[in-house]
Every structure is written in structure tokens, then in C-alpha cells.
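Is adenosine-5'-triphosphate placement plausible here? Inputs below.
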Amino acid sequence: MHPFKRLFQYSKNYQKDIGLGVLYSSINKVFDIMPEILIGIAIDTVVNKERSLLAKLGYNVAKEQLLILGVITALIFVFESLFEYLYSVKWRNLAQNLQHDLRLDVYSHIQNLDIAYFENKNTGNLLSILNDDINQIERFLNNGINSIIQVFLSSILIGIVFFILNPSIAVLSLLPIPFILFGAFYFQNKIGPKYYEVRENAGILNSNLNNNILGIATIKSFTTENYEFKKIEQLSSQYKKANYNAIKFSSAITPVIRMAVMFGFMIILVYGGYLTLDNQLNVAFYSILIFLSQRLLWPLTDLSEITDNYQRSLASINRVMDLLKIPTKRIDIGQELALRNIKGHIECKELKFSYTNHTILNNISIKINSGETVAFVGTTGSGKSTLLKLLMRFYEKNSGQILLDGKDISELNLSDLRRSIGYVSQDIFLVNGSIADNIAYGSFQASREEIIHAAKLAEAHTFISAFEEGYDKMVGERGQKLSGGQKQRIAIARAILKNPPILILDEATSAVDNETELAIQKSLEKLVIGRTTIIVAHRLSTVRHADKIFVFNNGEIIENGKHEALVEKNGMYASLWNIQMGEINLNLKLQNSIV
Ligand SMILES: Nc1ncnc2c1ncn2[C@@H]1O[C@H](COP(=O)(O)OP(=O)(O)OP(=O)(O)O)[C@@H](O)[C@H]1O
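Reply from A.M.:
I modeled the complex. C-alpha cells:
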């Protein structure tokens, strides 16, 4: 489907506005060409006096004729201005409505896209679609449609007047129009792909800028400012070059059209002049033709701007529509789950998964009973977080099954499934609001008491109370004003407040000190009662009391059982444990020797 056709599907709620916009633009155009006709009538009045058109209509006194012309001129300008105001308001409001609808649709679509999409795409590029591309569409809608209507309508109206006044001149002066249109569309086709390239380059540039600003601390600490500057310089040059390519063509349109306009104008000037000298053409008609030829042909030079704007918008619409075409996962379909009935029994059966070709999880079969606390441990990159992502259906398994309370999660209502899980991830997302806002994120109805209670359980209350503003302290963008450990505790409090039947803590306490971790664990002991808890941890001391420990290695579970049994088994867990114990002992010895 043509991009504009798709865009106008958005406009179905605004059909009345579009109709009125077209009407106002058309009426304005009619008034717009009238002054040229009035000039002809004025010349007719002063040259032909009592033989003039107005005299034939009964106004014999020349000065009276001029007064009438003055009044008509004033009325024409008043109405022209009035309708200009009306169409401008209509089209610009329509542009606002459509860009608003489009932005919300795109945003909601992006939110429903799979996590996989975000892991493979640049956020900067998405931002550039949400902002630049939609703004470009808005700019086109602001005046583009009106310009197209007016250019075509004025050609038709003036063409009609020409034919009435002198058909032979009309034919000759309209001759350049097909060439002008052909030229405009020829260039338009040439420019289209170039503007798409411009938009793509803008997206890449944006994404790099975005990435660098987010990573400014790393850039500074590695003193890579020059390196990054050069990278941005190169990307900005590519953007500039893509624009140069487009400019080469878009700048050529107006001069080419001007040549065709000159040809039409010359015909009227010379041929019409001959006819007037030979008394075959009334001097007033000659003047009207001269003036109207300007009104007919010059607006066609606007075609260059219109096509330019149109092509830029087409590129933007394509990018927006391409994004809207990416399939999303419906979260509101599938078997419903009542939160209060979820027991939290989880079972994976011969689960296999790969992000690309490389197998990440191979033949995973585990059982987690309702209310149990289990731990996923193992080497880094062994697939622990990936299994959690499958559990929340951020990704779909390749084969095998994951069952929640005996039901295959791929058949469950995704929204219910995710609502049943409290997830504290490795990268914590804090909104730019207060600490209280962040704890209550997702549990928006929570009272201040409930928020404080959750914070106490997460060992966050003490540090929060130490802030002058307490729970109202603003955390800054992405929680920049808090330490890593503070952010983790707020995230835990948020999961506690959600009160889900299943709790997943993925390295949730990796950034807190040993003392705080111990305190959080104490709180968790109370918290895990009555809910299934999965803890991913590298520090084995934090999970030694788990009901079951699953040891991951290269996408497989190579051992599982209780801590003591696993230590006794003397396998991989035991060696990891011994290494960590060795480190602790070494630290203790070091501390003692310093003392
Ligand atoms: N989105 C992705 N696309 C492709 N490969 C990925 C993606 N996410 C993770 N991987 C790869 O999958 C493997 C398992 O990663 P995963 O995050 O599950 O490991 P992990 O056991 O949780 O590691 P860690 O303990 O370091 O957090 C790694 O080799 C990683 O590079």
C-alpha cells in the first residue's frame, strides 16, 4: 500500500476536517486570482471609459466605476484573508492531530515489540523515528496538502479564464505545463531514495550520539573523547554527504521549472502583444492574460518545494510504516490466569533455545515446586539469565516446554504471566521521579505506608530516611543520583510491593556490601514464604540456604541439589565454592595482617 494511503487511514476520524480544509483552500484560491481579473477590469475602465464592461452594466460615471472596483477589491481581500486563516487553522490542526495519533501508535507499537527487537536495534534510531520522522510528516501536513490543492486548482481556474478570453493563447501558454509536471515528477523519483538515505544516516548519527551521552562516564574515564569525536565527525559527514546528494537534485528543480515558465510567459507577452496591436485582442484581456500567466505558471515553481517536502515525508512515512509493520506479540490473548490462584509450580521440559545459530540452552529439564526458593549459579554466559527471559517469554523457546502450574506458558495470557512475576533484573530501570514513585512503579495505588513497608523489607528505609527529602527525593534520569546498591534496593522494594506469586532476583544484590546483603537476605527469608523464588547469584554464600541449587555450565544444568550435597559431590559447584571460600579466607588473613 502506498505510504500516503496508509497515512490517510489515520485520518479517517478527521474526514470532516479534511473536507472543510479542501473547501477553505479552494475558496481562498478563487479569491486569490480575482485581483488580476480586477486589474484587467480597471484597465478596461480607464482605457475604454463609457464603452467599458462596467459602463455596459449601467455604471456610466468613470469615478463611480473606480469606486465600485475599490469596494470589490476590498471585499475580495477580506474574504481571501478570512479563508486563508480558516484553511491554515484546519490543516495545521489536522497536522497536529495526525502527528499525535501517529506518535502514540508508533510508541505503543514499540512497547509491544519483542525484547529481541530492542537488543538488535539502536535506541537512537527509534528515537529519530519517533521524533524527526514524525515531525517531518507534521511539517508536510501543515502546508503540503494545501499547496498541492492550490497549485492544481489555480491551474484549472486560470486555464478556464484563458480559454474564455482567448483559446489560441490559452493552448500555447498551457504548453509548458506537461513539461513542468514531468520535470517535477522526474526529479521527485530521483530524490526519493536519496532522502531515505538521509533519514537512515540521521538515525545512525542519533543512535551514536545517544549512546555516547549515556556512556559519558566511560568515555571520560578512558579519555576516548577524541576517538568518539572522530566517530561522530565521520557519521555527521556521512549525513552531510547524503544531504548533498539530495540537495543536488532538489536545487535543480526550480531552475528547470523556471525555464518552462519563461517559455509560457514569452508566448503570452509576444503573441498576445501582436494580437492586441492587430486589434484582435482587447487591451484589458491582454493585461489579464499577462497577469494571470504569472499566477498560472509561477506557483508551479512551488512544485519543487512541494515535491521536496513530499519526498522527505515519504521517506519518513516509510520508516514509520516499516516500524509499524514489524509484528508484535499480543499480551492480551491466551488462557487467563487469576493472580490469586497461581501456586508458582514451574517445570521446564527438554528446553532448547538459541538467539541465533549457536545453542544457548540445551535440554534443560528442571522442576521448581510451589513456594520453593531455588538458585541458578554457574559460570558467566552459561545461560542463567536467558532461562529467566524464556520464563517471562521475552523470547520464545525453540523446543521443549515451560509449564506454570502444569500449564504451558506459551498458551497463557502473556500479561497475566508477567503480572505473576516480580522481576529484579541486572540492569535496573528507574524512572525520573521520586524514590516513592519508583518503588510504587507498577503498583500505582500503593499507599505511603505500603511503600515504606516494602522499603523496610528491602533494607532501603534507612538510607532513604537519611535523605533530607526522604521518599520524595528525586532520583534523576535513570537513577543517576543514587548508588548502584541503593538502586538495587529500590528495585527489590518495587518487586516486594508488587507482591507476586513468583519472585525472580537476577544478581539483585551484586552491588551492595556484604552487610547490606546479609540484611536483605534476612528480609528475603520472610518475603519468600509462600512464593516461588528464583535467585541468580555469583556469590554462592548468598544462596547456600536455597531449597535447590541448579548449576549451569555452557547452557546445560550439570548438577543440582542442596548446598551441602553439592559440596560433598565435589563437582563444579564444590570447586566454585572452594574458590570463593579461599578468597574469603585470603581476605580475612590480609585484614588480620594489616591489623
Ligand atoms: N540478545 C542476545 N543475542 C545473542 N546472544 C545473547 C543475547 N543475550 C545473551 N546472549 C548470549 O547468550 C549466552 C548466555 O547469556 P546469559 O545472559 O543467559 O548468561 P548468564 O549465565 O546469565 O551470564 P551472567 O552470569 O554473566 O549474567 C551468552 O553467551 C551471551 O553472549
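Short version: The CA atoms of residues 46 and 540 lie 104 Å apart.
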